[in-house]
Each structure stands twice: as C-alpha cells, then as structure tokens.
Amino acid sequence: MKSDHMQYKTKVFVIINIIFLGFVLNAWSQEKSSLASLFTETFEDFPRKEVNLRKWDAPVVADLDKDGYPDLILNDHGLGISVCWNNKGKFAKPYDVIMGDLHGVAIGDFDFDGVNEMVLSRGGGSGSNARNSKMYKITKKREFIPMPDFNVPLEMMRGRTLKFFDGDMDGDLDLLNFAFPSKEKKGQSENYIYENDTQGQLLLKATLPMIKADGQKSTLTDFNDDGIVDILLYGNGKVKIYQGNGDLTFVEKTNVLPFDIEEVTAISEIDFDNDGDFDLIMTRGKEFEIGETFLNKETQTWGFFTKRGDFQFQDLFVGDVLNMNNFQSQWPFNDAYYIGESAYKYEFSGETHSGKDIRLVNSNALGFPDVLNPEGGIHVGYVGNDKWRIAGSTFAPTTGAIIGVKEYPDYKHPKGLSDVLLENKNGKFVDVTKKANLLLEDHTVGVSVADFDNNGSEDILVIRRGELVFENNVVIYLNQGDATFKQLNYNGISTSDIGSMGMAVEVLDYDLDGDVDVVIGNERGKWHLFENSEISKSKKKFITVEVGNAPSGKATALGALVSLTNCKNKQLKRVGATGSAYSSSFNSFIHFGVGTCTRPLKVNVTWTNGESVSENLQMNTKVFIGKK
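Above: the chain sequence. Below: its structure as tokens.
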C-alpha cells in the first residue's frame, strides 16, 4: 500500500511539474515569438556598403533636403562621409560627400537662408596636419555646395567634436568646436565656443577648460531647468558638468553629480519618469586590452585585439589552410602583411582600407622569420604540425578573426561595468540605477532613447561593445511607466559582423509610420537598419510633431522643447537630442507614444528664444508646428 501510495504521489508530482513546465515554456515561447518581432533588419529600405569599415560616432539624422523625410549622414572613419537620402521611407544607397579623415558632424541653418548647412570636423594627422572644419550648404536639390571660410576662419586643430546649439537664447545657432589636444598648444584650451553674429559669421567667443586625450566627448542638456544649455564633458577621467550662464560662458558644476563617474562611453538625456525635467543615462565600459583574445567554440572562430607595439599570439592549430577574416589595421600597416619565413609581402588585389579576408595554404607560407620587419606590420606563417603563427608590430588598433580554431587558452576578460541612470531632483542628480532595474554589468558603448513600444514612456537602447567573434545583441529596457524598466530579452536587434565591435547607434522613424526604428554602425563592421514592427501599434497610439522655426522666423527649430500632455502624464523632448559623443543631429520629427489614451492631446513647442505655440491634436497624426 505504501509503495502504491508513493508511486501515486510521484506520478502526481511529475504531472504537476510537466504542467508547470508547459506553462513556463508556453509563456517563454509566446514572449519570444511576439517580442522577437519587435525589430527586423531591413535591407530593401537600406542599401549599404557591403564591406567592413571603421566608424566614427553615431549617424546624424536630419531632413537635409527639407522634403519631409529624415535623411542619414554616415561616417566611415578615415574613408569619408556619405549621405543616405530618404526617398519617402526608402533610403538610397550611400552617396559620398567628402573623402578623408572626418570626425564630428553638425547640421543646422545657422544663417537663416532656408537651407541647411553642414560643418565637418577634419582630423589632424595625429598632430602633423592641423586643419579647420569644412562647411557645405545643402540645397533642396540635394546638392552639397562648399562654403568659404569665415572672415576669421575657424581654428586649426585635430578636429573632434562639433555641435550646433543656441547657447545665448537669441534664437540662432552657435557652435561647439572641440579638438583633441595638441602638444604644440602647450596646455592652451582647444575647446572653442563660437557665437553667431547674425551676419552669417561664427566668431570665437569663449573656451571651456582644457581636457586631456579623448576628453572632448560631450552631451548637451539643461540640468537646472533655466532654459540655458549646459554641457557634459567626458571620455577621459570623470564626467564634468558645465552650467551655461546664457552668454556662451560656462561655470563648472560637477558637484551636482552624486559621485565621480568614470569609464563613461555615451550619455543621453531622458525624462524617464515624465516629471518635466531631464534625467541622464550613461553607458560605461572598458576598451579591449592589448593582447586580448576571444574564442567562439561553437563556430570555432578566434579573434584578437592589439595595438601600440610588438605582439605574438600562441600558435593556432587550424590545419593546412588558414582563413583570416576581417583583418584591420590603420595606415601605414593596413597592407603590411608578410608571409612565411621569407616574409614576402602579401599583394592585395583591391583596396585595403576595409577589412581584409585572406586565405593562405601552408605550402605558400612555410616557416617564420627570426627577425620581423623593423618597420612594423603583421607576419603570418605556417610552423608545422597544423599550426600557424601570427606576430608583428603595429601602432593603431589591430584586429582580426581566424576560422577553424578549436582550442585556445582562455583569456581572463575584465569584468563588465554597470551603466548609470541619474534622476534629476531640482537640478541635482540621484543614482537610481538599481531602483529602476537597470542591472546589467557589461562593457557598453552607446545609448539612444525613444518610446519603442508607444506606451507613453521613453525606453533605453544600449549598445554592447561585444566580443569580436560572437553575435552582438543590443539591450533594450522598456519603460514600465512607473519609473522602472524591464529588459526586453527578445528584441530582434542583433549583428554578426565577425571581427567587429559595437559602437554607434541612433533612432528615427525613417518611414514615418508612427514607431521608432534603429540604425547601428559596428566599428570595423557594417551599418544596419532595424525596422520597428511593433505588434500592438493598433492599440498603442502615437503623435509625430515636425518642428519648424519659431513663428517669428527668428529662432531655429534645433534645440526647441516639445511637450505632450496625454491622459496619464506629460512627456518632454528636445529637437536634436542625441547620445552622439561628437556630433549633433537635427531630427525635427519628434515622436511620442501615447499608450491607449483616447482623449485629445495637447502639444506645446517652446523655441530657444522663448516663443511658444500650443495645439490640441488627435491620435495617430503627424503635424507641422512653426514656420517653414
């Protein structure tokens, strides 16, 4: 009897667990099947360059030709700047605007002539070729017309950051123009602030204190809600905050942060709690270490990172044929590949700026030299017993991947860092990262904010640095509407550019269908466009406000504040807000999700000179507010 009873209890227990497991698997399956379709990569609407290229910062979004659709400016670092024209929801293939070493990009109509101007920050050849920024007018016929220098040209520099903003609240666009510090300046600041003189000239007005190395990354916000733009500087050491005085001068107010915050890779403003002020989300992570390696045992792909000096990796067991994927190093080592004991130079049949795929047979690569080329480069040779050796010397970051590696010693990778969410409390910030359920510890490199699911609260999208030979999945935190977030595990945004690392991201509603899409650029990889196919948009509504100049025509749309009052809350956004570290976007299409609200909505636009317009709107509409 006891045995029968125990068997009965065991059967019941097994049945209950099977039922419970079925519920769990069904819920998991439903979540995965529904949420995985939130984003889908689209190639039809986004013809791209099918080569792996270095990147510089986030894409820049602006309606360049003023045809009512947002265009894209892409920066492939060291190669050039290209534009993807938006043809009513479908991008044209990238069109090269200018070739060379370009960094920050700023878009805006700073002379009020009715067309956009583009300013491009040019690199300075590591200090050997300081240059000033390049300027273009962009006509409605999609022409880029070079502009002459101002009467007093912009400063010569190793250009990095360019951001248009109205720093003195007079309605026109001033300019931040920051440089990588040059030794020749002997400590003199190169963080230049230019004032718009309303006569079509930008005149040097002030500077911010000097910074070291790559500390000129910046984010514009208004932390004390006085209507004056403030500046966050980061990229080297701790984040610093400079409060605007309203006359294009600034005073440091870093003490409004709750603690010293370092290793920051990107910052975006966000009103995550819908209380009418701007909070901050900061991504944090470390760069790859010199000599860091990765092995994907499932795909048998091995990758490496090195820079600034000699290197030699442990011999790789791969057999008779070596397949090298996406090998990249900058000039002068981009084509300096030496093969076998004789160290003959490998001859590439095409360009060598992008990633290089090389197939070597052991009989053509026998042996390894005792002395490597003293001028530097990458040496590859077959050393017997199915093993290959890779060694050399480079200065710039050098990466690559090898297919067919089954084993390699484990590398102890540095522990990931936590991102930081700061809530604005009357002009001072409080750390609410854990309280808001942002619990990820990783090396993250980029951030954008948008209401991806149209529920009326802004979500957070974070780009991981990744690990070279693994797929790189973005992190999306969906705002629950109560100042907390839930990580969306199956968001559909993943890239597999082997040998690349995460870097650049920007959001936009490129097809103006009422949900926000995502553009990603992988460093040493490709550009990707992910279309938002938000499955419940029939229930969750939206409003798109296209912002023009102020009614008087005396204030630009860039920097205008747009608020939306719906059934539950008040949302606040800024025209041109971006998580870009070096550039400034000018996306004049402001998207609001409004959840399931059924009542009319009130939208208010306040331009930087104080002019304001309010309108009542119906759901699922696109409206233009301001002056063309």
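Residues 12-36 have pLDDT under 50 and may be disordered.
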